[in-house]
Amino acid sequence: MAKPIRNTPILSGHDSMVFHSEISQLPTADERKRERERIAASVEQLKLMIANLPE
Q1: Which of 10, 17, 24, 30 has the largest CB neighbor count within 10 A?
Q2: C-alpha to C-alpha distance for 14 and 7, rounded to whole angstroms
């Protein structure tokens, strides 16, 4: 039988201010998309380098 899920705690005071400041500094969707594309390009370049290694 599954364990019961506890209620999500409510942030207040200093904790809520810290959470809000951290969440507002997250990268935009465009920045995240560019980063994913950059990583995918690096992976493809690495795959080509590995495929061309002499045996």
Answers
A1: 17
A2: 21
**Mapped to the 3 state alphabet, what secondary structure does 1-55 carry?**
CCCCCCCCCCCCCHHHHHHHHHHCCCCCHHHHHHHHHHHHHHHHHHHHHHHCCCC
Calculate Rg over the CA atoms of the chain: 21
Q: How far is CA 40 from CA 16, 35, 46, in A?
A: 35, 9, 10
Kindly state the tokens that stand for 42: 């690096």
User: Is 0.90 surpassed by the pTM of this model?
Assistant: no
Classify residue 37 by its DSSP letter: H
